[in-house]
């Protein structure tokens, strides 16, 4: 099947998906959940093949981490499908209702966007995440993963197809494999309603430049945490969680800003060193250990995606905010502080999809924020900002009901 035929089939399927009963959406998600467990061994075998090829091609540790699947990952994906299924119905629900003085009833109804194209890198779990959320939100979806995960992606798509073939309309969920196909897909705005690139800046920029349909970018996460001098939480624990729990994640901490009057600065820095984190710090930070490398402006503009971090000492909250404004990727920014005025200033001065107060940046995740899963974390403002769950994959239309009303 060529790309044009695929896009046409997806468009036809999308019109049927909108009217699909919610019970069938739940049934499809449940079937995928069961099939994932049933085909666990097949999925892991395919993933191992991808990992071996990735190592042969000298892909970096962060890429290998994002590529890898374990038994627990597959069990978690299976559970995620059930969690998405259990969430409140999205498609067809009435978001707002008002009645005019003449009795005309005006409603806003939530409906699918239509056909979504999604291009992503590394993470094969996105095949399941994207499909599950598309089913829940009533959209058809065309997925394109990175070539480094091609075997895993194929098997996961086979799992979805087998599980849903008697439940969903034909053509609801597609998988494409080559960059050439992406180029063709980006031209088909008469069939594809939205394009979602999720990955590095080069991928996002390519899609933005070439797409003929609207784009919601899921770009890099250059995430900051500012520690104010009055912070009364366990700063070291929070910082370690944000940096080390999964360093390759887009919501991992990349730059730490420490107020010079915070009493435990050295403790925090040494805790990072003890955890095996490579620190790039300014001159004041370098005084804490000879192991600390000198930070450059490029370091502060770097999304490390590894056990590396940039650290700077600041004199005030204003200096911290100014630094974040300069380098922010509008993904996740956090503050650890007690003073409400300082916290409010931080919240009102920054533009990011998620702002965290006295917690880890790692909470900016669809599952953690109650969405069940995420298509990705949008760093665009239109049409969604932050993690995109099923609700964010819909739009609204007006339903106007009269009883013979005419306009004067």
Strand count: 16
Biggest sheet, in brief?
7 strands, parallel
Assembly annotation: single chain
Number of helices: 15
**Rg (CA only):** 23 Å
Q: What would you call the shape?
A: globular
Fraction in helix = 40-55%
Question: How many structural units, i.e. domains?
Answer: 2
- Which CATH class of the largest domain applies here? Alpha Beta
Write out the strand line-up for the largest beta sheet, numbering strands in chain order.
10-9-11-8-7-12-13
Q: By CATH's scheme, which homologous superfamily of the largest domain applies?
A: Aldehyde Dehydrogenase, Chain A, domain 1
Give a quick precis of the structure.
With 408 residues, the protein is an alpha/beta fold.
Q: Could you please describe the fold and organization of this structure?
A:
By secondary structure, the chain is of the alpha/beta class. It has two domains: 3-218 and 375-401, 3-Layer(aba) Sandwich (Aldehyde Dehydrogenase, Chain A, domain 1), CATH 3.40.605; 223-363, 3-Layer(aba) Sandwich (Aldehyde Dehydrogenase, Chain A, domain 2), CATH 3.40.309. Helix content is 41%, strand content 20%. The protein is built from 15 helices and 16 strands. A hairpin with a 7-residue loop joins strand 14 and strand 15 (386-387). Helix 2 (22-38) runs antiparallel to helix 5.
